[in-house]
Write the structure tokens for this entry.
Amino acid sequence: MGKTASLKTGPTTPLQVVWFKRDLRVHDHAALAGAAASGPVLPLFVAEPSLYAQPDAAGRHWEFLSECLHELTQDLAALGQPMIVRTGDVIDILQGIHDSYGIAALWSHQETGNGWTYARDKRVLRWCRQNEITWHEPRQFGVTRKLHDRNGWASGWDNQMAEPQHPTPASLLPIVKTNPGQIPSGQDLGLAHDPCPQRQPGGREEGLKLLETFLTDRGQNYRREMSSPVTAFDACSRLSTHLAYGSLSMREITQATYSQMRILKDVEQTPGVKAWRASLSSYAGRLHWHCHFMQKLEDEPSLEFKNLHKAYDGLRPDEADSAKLEAWAKGETGFPFVDACMRALHQTGWLNFRMRAMMMSFASYHLWLPWQVSGQHLARMFTDYEPGIHWPQSQMQSGTTGINTVRIYNPVKQSEDQDPTGQFIRTYCPELGAVPDQHIHAPWNWDGFSTEVAPRYPGRIVDHVIAARFAREAVYGVRKNGAFRKGADQIQDKHGSRKSGIRHTGQRAAKSSRRKTHKSATSAQLDLDL
């Protein structure tokens, strides 16, 4: 039988089903490569309405994903076998395929997703065992399932990312009588209209363009421009969304970064090149930290819902103050920099990491909101929502991990430092156009606020100095006992970073004292921009 012939499937030719989830590419796809080497392949994507009914789901997520999916279906069709798209419960879909064709094996990458996908995958595993179907789950990130401890984790990440990329299969045998199905709309999945006019477009082609321009142009000043929203939208790679949905692989991004660093090393004496290479070195460190945080959720799925350190249970109210939550979510807190960041997030689906940290800190400390609720809102706003990063970071910025420094961002100081001329503020808060430059960061101090601004822009929702003092005393008050320290030691042993040789801005050298080690892991919360 030639490669172009149709494969007549039936009981004697069971299929290798490749279940695409958040790995929407054909290149460097371990599951697809493994399945193609094992027998006839049926590529499958299941749009699951129950997943998109979860409180962390939003229309912008599906819109980006569906653009990746459209491109992926074309790539698979070019190989000979189009994607099969179905809407419903994945077990029902798999059972139907098994009844009609027979499934020899199920292939998909390991996923460190939200609580719903974790429970779903356990159901799929039970179904596979009941039907005596092998489920192959190769890794696509530097995350290790059932990890015993973090010793040697960083070197393991390096080794995995240095492995050769999986080539795209030369062809896939077409399977007859298979209806490819339709990619549903967000409305079909029950998602509300979610306008995000400046959202990044999805698809591998777009991701490759971003990778190329970042490594050869935009990333030159990454190290010094990633912290301010004025410069970060261009200086950061903007590849985080493509990593979240797998249109590019972590391995190919890592290898391309190191390759460009080697090229720059050869011309390091050229003015500006040494700093450029240093920027890419910083970026390579962030790629490590991406998976470091995902490992936390992999090891502790309850991080999405429960305080990592139980001593913080009951510290904040279970129910959010609805007025404060709404003001923060709309970008109407009266703090111009905070509001500009939230409004930019509404419009673009993205913020640089320091601003994400500040937004979560402001909600958790100044507004004293439960991190689960504010975290869900940010998850819906981030087009690049990656549960494995988002939930550990939500807790880190809220002071509930027990092993990280309590860092309460002053929203006025951040504004002065990161947007000194008010350029970013004025872009997203045009109501403040009449405010003089010297008052743009704290307009309530301007004599003209009540007459020139107040009718269109709210006064500040809290006194940030008093609110921060209250939060600091409350959070640190929990730490003043031996039981807390014992719990923190156990958390550090399981989740804390180890001395690994990873270069990271501000990271302290490992100390023999465990208490010092707790502090050494804190610097990562500022520097995760991708």
Q: What stands out?
A: The longest strand covers residues 41-47. Residues 139 and 212 are 25 Å apart (CA to CA).
